[in-house]
């Protein structure tokens, strides 16, 4: 995250999208991963936050620059591994499928969060997901 922020000040959502792009969609961190990590970086003094409308834009501090420099070798290894992933012969998942998976995930979470104590609602969601899984599995049979 420090490396991404060192390239340009970024919002949390921009960091999520950049990680997704750099992993070829193989990894899309959730806001529940990114925002606590940004708070930790703030606490460590590696980044600073500036209000940008209703969002915060994060930029590197001198301490963050020093940390990047100290971890340059580790960063090179990470970037190499990401490059290998992007150069893979097999894309992890096409953009349209990845988008549909993301929308499904959020729809499921929202449906369950609306009334988490309703067992009928949870069962209905589970049944829909099971049916979708079975239909997708049958694609190999055609």
Care to give the gist of this entry?
67% of the residues lie in helices and 8% in strands.
- Fraction of residues in β-strands: 5-15%
Radius of gyration: 19 Å
Broad shape: extended
Total tally of structural domains: 2
Largest sheet: 2 strands, antiparallel
| pLDDT averaged residue by residue | 86
Q: In which range does the helix fraction lie?
A: 55-70%
Helical stretch count?
A: 7
Secondary structure: number of strands? 2
Uncertain regions spanning at least 5 consecutive residues: none
Examine the coordinates and then state which fold CATH places here, giving the name of the CATH topology of the largest domain.
Answer: Arc Repressor Mutant, subunit A
CATH level 4 superfamily of the largest domain: Winged helix-like DNA-binding domain superfamily/Winged helix DNA-binding domain
Sketch the topology as an H/E string, one letter per element. Answer: HHHEEHHHH
Would you state the CATH class of the largest domain?
Mainly Alpha
Give me the side-by-side strand order of the main sheet.
1-2
Quaternary status: single chain
Task: Please identify, by name, the CATH architecture of the largest domain.
Answer: Orthogonal Bundle
* Distance separating the two termini: 43 Å
Written account of the structure:
InterPro entries: Tscrpt_reg_PadR_N, WH-like_DNA-bd_sf, WH_DNA-bd_sf. It comes from Hyphomonas adhaerens MHS-3. Strands 1-2 form a two-stranded antiparallel ribbon. The protein is extended. The protein is built from seven helices and two strands. The chain folds into two domains: 85 residues, Winged helix-like DNA-binding domain superfamily/Winged helix DNA-binding domain (Arc Repressor Mutant, subunit A, Orthogonal Bundle), CATH 1.10.10.10; 47 residues. 67% of the residues lie in helices and 8% in strands. α2 packs across α3. The model has no long low-confidence stretch (mean pLDDT 86). With 142 residues, it is mainly α.
């Amino acid at each position: 995250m420090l490396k991404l922020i060192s390239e340009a000040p970024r919002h949390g959502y921009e960091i999520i999208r950049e990680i997704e792009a750099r992993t070829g969609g193989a990894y899309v961190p959730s806001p529940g991963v990114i925002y606590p990590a940004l708070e930790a970086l703030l606490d460590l003094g590696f980044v600073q936050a500036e209000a940008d409308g209703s969002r915060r834009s994060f930029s590197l501090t001198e301490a963050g620059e020093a940390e990047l420099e100290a971890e340059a070798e580790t960063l090179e290894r990470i970037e190499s591994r990401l490059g290998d992933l992007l150069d893979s012969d097999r894309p992890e998942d096409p953009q349209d499928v990845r988008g549909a998976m993301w929308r499904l995930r959020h729809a499921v979470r929202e449906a369950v969060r609306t009334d988490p104590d309703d067992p009928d609602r949870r069962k209905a969601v589970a049944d829909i997901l099971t049916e979708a899984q079975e239909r997708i599995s049958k694609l190999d049979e055609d």
